[in-house]
Write a structure and sequence with these properties.
With 499 residues, the chain is of the alpha+beta class. It is built from 16 helices and 19 strands. A hairpin with a 5-residue loop joins strand 13 and strand 14. The protein is globular.
């Protein structure tokens, strides 16, 4: 049997019910009752049952189970809104057959990001062993990502597959471009090369295996070819810009006619020069903004961890020893490169992780809210939160004196991003701060800020003004909803009764 979820459902419609299901972009921008009985009066923001893109009784039970451990009525409602948001609103297509394939949109943008889609399903992994349909949905995403990256491994966001019969989304900024390697906008939504896409692909595959014990997907020719291509690309992008006074051929390049520096790359597309460090060059950050120096340290840290996880999975299963050895070698080189070139001395905070470096000594000391970030290094598994360099880095990042993208105001305080401009904090960074803290007071403070950050709309925004709750970007941002629901489960597990 083939079950197809229409793009109409993604936009808030379901076959045969276009007059009843509003666009979720519009739905999420206004409040709906009933309201919670707490001080924030959080609205109920789930679409009607008939308008949900994937209904799952296990997740409904999980919502009730987690909510029973929460005393705060505002958080009960906010968790009920955020935890199922990916399933409720973003399953654009799931074929429901063998092998399964799943296409998840990011929210109000009807395309599938590799990074976002992985993060969107992470909160559901603990439930896969008790729900085969949910497991098939996630396995479908593993297969879909493999197909996408095997076809064009340099993309960060993709269009729906032709067989889904969904109409490709128009990308208004994928114009006036010169991109290498070239891409087809009918299959690739955006071709901003970001190494965290590789890491997210590896992360989902190994996390699915650890959660379920199921590994037949790794024998798919598509998955093996995608992994092989990615490892070869990683190796090439470790190379320096120059060798023996000659410029090495750049594998990736992105230049766009634009008035915004964050939307194009230096040197006509390949980015600023680098020396060999063991790290891997990337053209764009997880915010989809251009890097200043091509060695993005937190993205390399994330890639290192997921190469190690890939190595461990293949080693445990005793398969693909050549791929396993490549992954292991690359992980060691990247980790050594970060240790030697990614740790620098700050005048006030001592030894810290830099955000970006080039191997020549240039460094960017800052952070961006988007994960992988420096703040998220323990969450990613690269270091423990007690690591002395991380502790120094954390102090640097959570200060208006030393991080130009950390903002404080009467409404919220946290790390923002050049992607959304000055004085806008991303709630995502507040959740990461809470998940990387062992201090119950700090965790509670983060939870309180997040509860008050929804502008009365009961969902997690991309960014919010630190000065005004009425100023925000993106009322429908599935990744943010998933991450905050992860934080809630983490917080009540570590600190029972905290909310």
């Amino acid at each position: 049997m083939q079950v197809v979820f229409s793009i109409a459902a993604v936009l808030g419609f379901v076959f045969g019910q276009t007059n009843k299901c509003p666009s979720f972009t519009e739905y999420s921008a206004s409040l709906h009752g009933p309201l919670s009985l707490g001080s924030q009066h959080i609205p109920s923001m789930r679409p009607a049952l008939a308008c949900r893109t994937f209904q799952n009784p296990t997740i409904e039970h999980a919502i009730r189970d987690v909510s029973s451990a929460i005393k705060d009525p505002d958080w009960q409602q906010l968790f009920a809104n955020t935890f199922p948001n990916t399933l409720d609103t973003t399953v654009a297509w799931h074929n429901g057959s063998t092998p399964p394939y799943t296409f998840l949109i990011t929210g109000d943008i009807t395309a599938q990001w590799i990074r976002d889609s992985t993060n969107q399903v992470l909160p559901y992994l603990p439930y896969l062993t008790i729900d085969s349909k949910l497991a098939q949905l996630v396995l479908g995403l593993v297969n879909m990502q493999a197909e996408e990256l095997n076809a064009y491994p340099f993309g960060n966001a993709f269009q729906p597959p032709l067989r889904s019969r969904l109409t490709p989304a128009e990308n208004g900024i994928a114009v006036d471009l010169r991109v290498q390697p070239p891409f087809n906008n009918q299959t690739v939504f955006e071709a901003k090369f970001e190494i965290d896409s590789f890491a997210s692909f590896f992360q989902l595959a190994s996390a699915y295996w650890r959660s379920t014990g199921e590994y037949q997907f790794i024998y798919s020719q598509t998955w093996v070819e995608a992994v092989d291509k990615i490892l070869d690309i990683i190796r090439i992008l470790q190379q320096p810009t120059y060798t023996n006074n000659k410029v090495n051929r750049s594998l990736v390049s992105y230049v766009r006619k634009t008035t915004e520096a964050k939307e194009t790359q230096f040197a006509g597309g390949p980015g600023n020069p680098v020396k060999y460090t063991g790290m891997v060059r990337t053209l764009f950050r997880p915010s989809d903004d251009a890097t200043m120096f091509p060695f993005l340290v937190p993205a390399n840290a994330f890639l290192c961890v997921e190469l190690e996880n890939l190595r461990d999975m293949l080693d445990t299963l005793r398969v693909f020893s050549e791929i396993r050895d490549k992954a292991a070698e690359l992980a060691v080189q990247i980790r050594n490169g970060i240790q030697k070139y990614g740790i620098v001395k700050h005048p006030d905070h001592g030894q810290v992780f830099a955000y970006e470096v080039d191997g020549y000594g240039s460094q960017l000391l800052a952070d961006d809210a988007n994960v992988p970030s420096l703040l998220s290094l323990p969450y990613l598994g690269f270091v423990n939160a007690t690591h002395p360099v991380y502790k120094n880095t954390r102090k640097m990042l959570l200060s208006t004196d030393s991080n130009p993208w950390y903002f404080e105001g009467p409404y919220i305080r946290g790390i923002g991003s050049p992607h959304t401009g000055y004085l806008k904090t991303w709630p995502m960074s507040v959740a990461i701060r809470g998940m990387t803290s062992d201090n119950s007071d700090e965790v509670k403070e983060c939870l309180d800020m997040l509860k008050a950050s929804t502008s009365g709309l009961g969902l997690i925004h991309e960014s919010v003004s630190v000065n005004s709750g009425s100023e925000y970007t993106r009322s429908w941002f599935a990744w943010g909803n998933s991450l905050v629901s992860q934080f809630v489960i983490d917080a009540i597990t570590r600190f029972p009764g905290i909310i």
